[in-house]
Amino acid sequence: MPKKASFNDLATAIGKGKIEPVYFFYGKEDFLIEELIGMIRAKLFASEEEARANTTVLYGGTGAEKSVTLGDVISAASSYGMFGERRLVVVREFDKIQKPKKEQQKAVYAALAEYVKNPLETTTLALCAGELDKKDLAKEPFSLLDSVGYEFPPMRDMAGFADDYAKRLGWRLSPEALRLLTMYAGNSARDIGNELQKLALYAGERADKTLTEKDVSEVVGVSREYNVFELQKAICGKDLRLSSGIALKILEKEEPSAIINALTTFFARLWKLRSPVAERMSEQDIAKELGMFGGQAYFAREYKQYAAQFTLAQIERALTALSVADQTLKGIRPQVDRPFLMLKLIREILS
């Protein structure tokens, strides 16, 4: 089983100089893996020049021009540096590394297992892989790396990650800013991280170190007046004219898929709130049930009010309309009239 340390735990340990000699990072959230590699590199070396001289990057992809074998990886990790006391060896696409020839497998895998048990003290070896299932992990060479493995599965708590990442950058997000950011930056740690880096640069030397909803609106490119939250309010108010107008304004800057995804999440949450069980839950439990963590939990009461505006049948019809629109969008040509598609969807939701 992979180690249970979270991204924050690892970032904290690395920041304190507690760097392990071997890491096996894998999972869908490759942005987090890249962030940790960057932290290790910055901690190991005093300057960019020193880092360049003492960092070796290898590629495991069999189709890559620079692809290497497992023997090459072990050899690189076992070599002493020529330009400094410490070395960093990073292997990208380790999940695609060439398998040893049958007659060599036993010796190569034994060498990897031995290196993991007795790594070179002056080298930090970081093996980076994509998403792996349990069957893959049970096979060599991955099974030999169990003791040094850290998994980064698809992130569930985007709001919590955004909040923590902002703090690492020296900022805090207001609840409204957090809600808008997580809605528009998508469900990717990379997108959240990139947007927060832009926000930090935009805010500059602001004294209170707080990022606001206005900041997010201006940097992400969606105005306060025309955003998905105003669209949700208009839909809940059953105002077809206002809902259509806001949707068209958002469509000037956003892809229709972004609007559809946001509304699907919204109505899926309303559907959950219409269950008898949810009616007996506390606001804190409701927030957890809806997948609203960190600062997003602040808005659980608002969602209860929204849910009261629809019957269960109306919510299910809205979800069906959104699903049809999503499938239509994926199958259409780029030149198809997307505003018409959006107006039709809004009308169907409010029918």
The overall pLDDT average reads: 83
The number of helical runs is 18
Strand order of the largest sheet: 2-3-4-1-5
User: For the CA atoms, what is the radius of gyration?
Assistant: 24 Å
Which architecture of the largest domain does the CATH hierarchy give at level 2?
3-Layer(aba) Sandwich
> Which term fits the overall shape?
elongated
Strand content: 5-15%
Question: What is the CATH homologous superfamily assignment of the largest domain?
Answer: P-loop containing nucleotide triphosphate hydrolases
For the largest beta-sheet, the strand count, sense and barrel status come to:
5 strands, parallel
In the CATH scheme, the class of the largest domain would be: Alpha Beta
Series of secondary-structure elements, N-terminal to C-terminal: HEHHEHEHEHEHEHHEHHHHHHHHH
For the record, the count of structural domains works out to 3
- The CATH topology of the largest domain turns out to be Rossmann fold
Runs in which pLDDT lies below 50 for 5 or more consecutive residues are none
Q: Label the structural class.
A: alpha/beta
- Helix proportion: 40-55%
First-residue to last-residue Cα separation: 50 Å
Count of DSSP E strands? 7
